[in-house]
Design a protein that fits this description.
Number of strands: 2
CATH topology: Amino acid/polyamine transporter I
CATH superfamily: Amino acid/polyamine transporter I
CATH architecture: Up-down Bundle
Order of helices and strands: HHHHHHEEHHHHHHHHHHHH
Oligomer: single chain
Strand content: under 5%
Low-confidence stretches: 442-449
Largest sheet: 2 strands, antiparallel
Strand order of the largest sheet: 1-2
Number of domains: 1
Radius of gyration: 21 Å
Helix content: over 70%
Length: about 450
Amino acid sequence: MISLARTLQLADFFSLGFGTMIGVGWLVVMDDWLMRGGPLGAILGFAIGGAVLLPIGYVYGRLVQTMPDAAGEIAYSAAVFPRSISFATGWMMLLAYYIVCPWEAVAIGRIAGYLFPALNSLELYRIAGKPVYLPHLVIGLALTMFLTALNYRGIRLSSSFQNWATFGVITLVLSFVTAGSRHGSIENFSPMFSGPALISVLLVLQIVPYFMTGFESIGKASEEAHKDFQPRRFMVAILLAIVVGVAFYVTVIAAVAYVAPWQTIVHERFATAVAFERAMGSQWIVRVIMTAALLSLLKVFNGNLVAASRLLFALGRRGLADKRLGYVHPSNRTPSIAVVCIGIATALVMLAGESLLVPISEVGSLASALGWMASCAAYLRIRPSFIGRAAASTGLLVTSLMILMKLLPSVPGHFSGYEWSALALWIVVGLLLRRRSGSRDAAVNNDRV
């Protein structure tokens, strides 16, 4: 049997985890974050959300070390639960990764349109009142084709690209934050919250799982670790990705609120760029921010494509979906069919345009929390040490609260009809896929008899 290529080292795993986590939300939906919580509410929401993810990160570190499998949550849950639960867990996590891909394909059109307003033309149609422009679609489709081809060719190419983009983003963000620190005032933070303090933090905390999803993607590439890679380093990569990711979000939110009165930018498109442009009165800072955003978009798109394709590949390899999805390209040693399927699905969904952006954040948060919960439950069933049991129990509590925040109508920010519809559609597609796979397996078995 042909195996996946084994070339990845610690820096590659960090870039995958951090890069899959940090996209362009800090630019594209900064206005939404500030409207939800205000500057301090947003900062506390991400800080608290990141802190409570550390026990979950610990659980993943142990699971990946024990089971270095591209199946990730599918493998962890399969160790102690029935196949139906294993499939459901994998299918929900696949949503969390996959849905980011069309999100980014749409976002690149918005960013390009901001830099070059002439691209905001040739409107094709509207969805939920938001226009879909032909140039935006062309740019998004071109990016999707490029990253699909890159991942089809090999994980080494994909990983090198991911490293370059990740460390480039960190460098550029530190540069514009440092430049902005010479302008602005702490008085711009007032008022600290968008409403009552607890509600403000809660509204931000609800979306943190979506914007922090990515650290566990390291497990999806664990089969592709270099033969000399020490398994204990999976834990280092995962925890480092969480800590640096939280620091990144908190730093950018604080910098935006510092350089401009936040209430004056919450109705602006690309509030982060607008805030720095107004504070410094210069276009060069906007170019730096947009360059950082473009690099960030490329790496998060690439990272989620890697993670989503590995999960889809694992579903096929384990017979939980069409077995052809488990094919490994003999020369490139990549899950080539799974990669192409994710690329095609991305191209189709991005046709919905900007109407996807915020609702997808909500559904992705729930999907991530469900996957994390299943992994913590599986780890607890394995009977780990006291520290492991404490971490898994904490993870179960945290993920349960995350899920309830989205499902209970009494909680502000709960699912609306759009989110329920999207989630229901995904569940139906999964059931059809599973049923078709089961019918095909049964037919094959009957033929053999």
